[in-house]
Specification:
The structure is a homotetramer.
Chain A (H helix, E strand, L loop, with lengths): L3 E2 L4 E6 L5 E7 L9 H11 L16 E3 L3 E2 L2 E2 L4 E6 L21 H8 L15 H18 L4 E9 L2 E2 L9 H4 L9 H16 L6 E8 L13 H10 L4 E6 L10 H4 L3 E4 L2 E4 L7 E2 L2 E2 L4 E7 L9 E4 L5 E4 L10 H27 L1
Antiparallel strand pairs in A: 1-2, 2-3, 3-7, 4-7, 5-6, 8-9, 8-10, 10-16, 11-16, 12-13, 14-15, 17-18
Helix pairs in contact in A: 1-3, 3-8, 6-8
Chain lengths: 360, 360, 360, 360
């Protein structure tokens, strides 16, 4: 179903930007894992608006509440419901969206599909929906810690518009990512990125970029042949995030200009383990993890909402002009980092359970 | 499940390269659609080996047989089973694969996952598996013709290694694609691509490239918010194809270097319809089709099997050398075109039925 | 997944008897249906404890709150989250359940499965979980009203222990069911049933019975061949309710003593419609509705919790005695009526949407 | 989907009575299980027509062929396709069904749903469809043998019309069931049943009855709370079989006339295991197995096809008479026994894998 993700660790998110709240129900979580609200809050805080001067100023604490599935600090094996109530909703700031479809936004397509839409703050198409994913992934991390110990997911900003960071996916640390507000572990480039975002915002414009993500410590064997290949599920997870336009794994599009003799990853025994000399495969072969680091990149377009006058049409079919108000990110990348990480965790958690089901 | 795709138009593929055969069961197909084996065969012929001098010489007619779900030339609404028996299997040509994992192939990961593998011809990881998808998509085309009349899917080779074609997705015709053996509608570039593939093959090497696909005549409203966005399902479908490393829609990765003011697609009324002036969105906004052409690209790596000596390891954990024999494509792109088209058709068929279910 | 039901109208329930609350997320609901909290509350009130002197005295208003998916009184097509917070929880009344498995309850099996359980009030196995189903079905009724106008579901108590009511499923009205607190439309028998429940309760004992349900005005064609037959999905829905031990449709078990010549329902044309002279099929043939009334019965065992000393074991593996306290129904049947009705509505809603998807 | 069953051990059946054949694809089977065609054939032979003088004389060897998923005698973990081609099809014997809906059959409902039907031999509604289920269950038995050693499923005829057998589910053996052609382990009653079926058949009439099934050696913990309760999935599986009208587990409908104090199963420690003194729960509590024998019963109506003149209507809406020809069972019960067993195996296999996924 449209708002569900995962086969065995299945999440159902709900909520609109300006309704009663947002949340998630997680079904299929193994029992007896330690879990409390603080475990979830730490990731929600990395995603929340108002966290720094380069993101949207909407002021939401995004305080989560676990309503079920946990007893005396442990998961019960039953559905875990997590709610976040909306606090700083200002529907009046969106009044003009009622009468004009924002270009490159979901206003028109929702109206075309459903014949109705919640025009306040983007409704269900708002990035606010990703709260449920990030909360669910915080739970997924507990599952992975239990059944894939040593696995770690690190996502970071690889580029903002033309500004490209130098990062080694084999060694990058979570602490370096969180060390600055743009979440780019290349500290020097991070400063330039922050300045650039501020400059763009002051012009009422927006920028996009690329988030790169590495998963290290993955046991060989996760993922399945044919449709539920690990990279296919990762691609779906990433392209399901708002504002994404592309996904590539390992050598990606650049790999298409190499020859097979240049591209192949030779196998070699190393300390009794099968390793590859290079990692153009990006840690996945035939849809299944090979034990090397999984490395992929996700393209985010520049934020659609800009503070410049744009040409558009009204629900009544008239050509009109729109100049947005409201509170928006001039660049979604800093807040997209925990979202990418969350989708990676959700995919891996599901496949770790599937692997255990079929292969013991 | 791993070998199933689609929610309402659900296909289940089965079969290994060198087992009894390959096939598909299609569940959920609407009734009373005209269908015969020839409808399917025409697409299987575009996918089959041995079709031209630049693809693998394995000689398979890939003759399909419909075993159920059709009565007196019409679909019954019940599962449609389509079988293709393997004919020109030569397992002996793969004997060395029993004792060495082919680099950048699925040999090692299947062994790591399952503790067993059919080493003959790649087993389930062979591109032969895509026969079931192409057959199912031939049926999907009948569904689309009935409920989305005017919708057309055209895929083509956009690049082979560094050779990049000029193609206008708004006007490219199926006949131009099928006019040459490399399936590139830029006729001059097609000749260069063909020469290049022959040259590479003669060196025992391989090349990859990019397939572009356009879907025109899509009604607004297909696709769903959040996880089952149209681009998310397309990304999953494409990354589930063998040898794929990347997916991008509309502006894709190149769009990340534009500003919002450059990237946004202004809306304008045109003949009473809502249109966009540009199409950087690639026909999808907020996960839902907006009525413009859907345009996406898929990266295919160079074929892993090359006829050069490579370093690898054996199932017993020894470093060994491997020089492949067998019959392989030096470039999968010409045969990948109908596969990309098939996955696009399957995604659209499923979403067309989902749209009808929820929105009438 | 365990806590999800439905393929297109999919509900996800969550919550324990004594946790933060209970609720449901409904995904796949068509847009533009009128919906407010009062529409849901009316059915929750029929299910709630404390509604009459023959049900559990736990005092819960079960006030629902719609948190998403509705805007300006209309469904949006996006997930609808409904929450009910627990109010009158008294976990201390269950303290002895921490140390003794209640006979014929789920205490032991939850512990055996998960290695942990919320022993307060039965946790997830409590009938309180059905709040989410009843709320979802209130929404399902809106869908059915829109796409199967004229369809009506009426459930009622058919028997309490040996007391058997006389009811004509072809004519029974909802108002007669709701006319008394035991929800038996045979008014005379209802009085006897009420007296009987009171007498049994005063002895600290409990009784079960049978709920019958009729669905009239079903269009021919709902349900699907093979696994998702209408009666199969109804059977699953009913056996998923707490305390159920059996399901039968049409002639049911009694039909097994008839001969084919006695059992078959002859077809006859009536006012231009295909009808059957008798209805031993119970409105379903080959898994698909035939337009006659769907009639089925569900067996509910006597409530497991009784106020008598019982032999049991502790989680530590010792034989112990248990005498329950807490607040319980001596007979679940009156409150089971809206639950049976809810599951019937959920099955029919899902199949109505599936029918529209495949057959237009 | 309609022709799929199971969440992790998922089967997809296909085929009509008089099409090219019938079969199944099994997805999710664990690897490295021994499997050959003979393992499947032994169960197909118990289901096949023509096996004795009291079943339909249609002469089908039902020879199966495994086309994929098995290599050198072991499962690969990939989809297993099993085909059975139709041999003794005599469509001309069904010519009158083209022009008249058989009473209490699926002819009318298929026509109403799909607007088309394969009128030869019942098409997809034929019991011939169950070949795929029985074949899949033969594979499921291998899975259960590996991960639930000691688990055994025994189904048998409990009654034919009024003739009721005495059978102790705790001790009944498979060999006693297979000792006679009616598959009733009460040898004396079996003789009377056989005579009765012959007598009824000679009158051109038919009879139904009850199949009882016991599953012994089930580990505690299989099944899941709420919707996917073990009894709910068993109920769905059984009601998905042709000609079924009811399901009950443990005390079933008879349990509704007991009081709680009479019905509850007291717990007691026995050799260090938690056991129940009685088993009115039928081995399942709160949807989860408690380690006691699972015992349930399934009601089969008398075969709809009888060789007597019946009143019916034509597809053109005229009242007509029909006298069937063709080859039919006067009583489906003997052949239903392996079908009930198959569905029980499929449910348990799926839940055993689900249990391993979530609870290790």
């Amino acid at each position: 179903m449209s708002s569900q993700f995962g086969h065995l660790f299945r999440i159902s998110t709900w909520g609109e930007s300006h309704g009663g709240g947002v949340g998630v129900v997680v079904d299929g979580c193994p029992p007896r894992l330690p879990l409390c609200e603080a475990d979830i809050q730490v990731d929600l805080d990395r995603r929340r608006p108002g966290q720094s001067e380069i993101v949207t100023p909407r002021n939401e604490a995004d305080q989560c509440r676990i309503l079920s599935g946990v007893f005396e600090g442990q998961t019960l094996g039953t559905p875990i419901a997590v709610n976040v109530f909306n606090a700083d909703a200002r529907p009046e700031a969106y009044r003009e969206m009622e009468h004009a479809f924002r270009p490159s936004h979901a206003d028109y397509t929702y109206q075309a599909k459903y014949g109705v839409r919640n025009w306040q703050g983007g409704g269900r198409s708002s990035a606010r929906e990703t709260i449920g994913r990030v909360a669910a992934a915080a739970i997924g991390k507990k599952v992975l810690a239990a059944i894939c110990p040593g696995l770690e997911v690190v996502a970071y900003v690889k580029s903002i518009q033309h500004l490209q960071a130098e990062v080694d996916p084999n060694t990058v640390q979570f602490s370096s990512v969180e060390a600055n507000m743009v979440r780019c572990p290349d500290a020097a480039m991070a400063l330039r990125m922050i300045d650039h975002i501020k400059a763009v915002r002051s012009e009422g414009d927006s920028v996009g970029g690329v988030v790169e993500c590495v998963v290290r410590g993955v046991p060989p064997g996760l993922g399945e042949p044919v449709f539920d290949r690990l990279e296919a599920d990762l691609a779906k997870g990433m392209l399901s995030l708002p504002a994404t336009k592309g996904f590539e794994i390992g050598s990606g599009f650049a790999g298409t200009v190499l020859r097979g003799s240049e591209h192949n990853d030779a196998f070699v025994m190393e300390s009794g383990r099968v390793r590859t000399v290079t990692n153009r495969s990006g840690g996945v072969q035939g849809g299944i993890s090979n034990g090397e680091a999984i490395v992929f990149r996700v393209a985010f377009k520049p934020t659609a909402t800009i503070f410049q006058t744009q040409q558009t049409v009204s629900p009544e079919g008239e050509n009109v002009e729109l100049k947005a108000r409201g509170r928006h990110d001039a660049c979604v990348l800093p807040r997209a980092v925990p979202m990418v990480e969350a989708m990676a965790v959700l995919v891996l958690t599901d496949h770790a359970l599937r692997q255990r089901a079929q292969n013991g």
